[in-house]
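[09:14] KT: can someone run the structure on this one? pasting the chain below
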Amino acid sequence: MQKWLKSGLTGVFGLFLSVSVTQNASAVCEKVRVSYTTNWIPVAYDSSNGEPSGIAIQLHREIFKRLNIPVEFVSGLPWRRQMQMLDQGDIDAIAAIHHNPERAERLALTDAFTESIVHVYRNKETSLRYSKLEDLKKYTGVLIKDASYGKEFDNYRRENLAILEFTELSRIMELLLKRRADYMILPTNISDFMIQNYGGEGEVIKSGPPVLVQPIHMGFSRKSSCRFMVEAVNEQITSMKRDGLINRLELTKYTN
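[09:31] RB: done, structure tokens below
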């Protein structure tokens, strides 16, 4: 009897604490303004009619609907401007971001809700054959501007690799097709979209094993009153993984 009573009280207290945390966070966060990168297909991007789209967008809409907090998605900001506004608390959160030590210090990151599998893609005519980072040293690569692929890659790249950076996906593909760059390093879902839509089929091919598998998080500004929502958001991510919602989103092709 005592054991049952103790277990029951513990469960009730845990439920009360969870509800209390969510209510307290909601009390200081009346609306969440969330920025996103407009070309991170299928994670977060603008659709052909200019609407916020992607796994992260759909997920966050559902999370804040469940938490009864209005959400506004902010589009059109360059990456560095997003980071500056997050630092200043001018926006509350970013919809999707890879982890690295600097970002973990600057932002309050949620649990990961999906992941990127990052590969090397090369022009089929180049002599490059990738199996390790050292294989890239003699070649010119191209990345999305300000991309970060973890501490090990970022440090190696800074010291050893010749990398060009561009914001426009079409420009990156153009450089590969015209042999002005030998390879690109991008998440598979973005690369597949680029190859299918910008003339890369049969010309640009995947090379070697993944560079890394990188978790994707939501990040809250440490100066936003909504930063206290992290625990409540994590609870929703756990629930959505358990009931299969995130898996269903990942199986959807956001390429409209």
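[09:33] KT: thanks! Confidence is low (pLDDT under 50) at residues 3-24.
[09:34] RB: yep, looked fine to me
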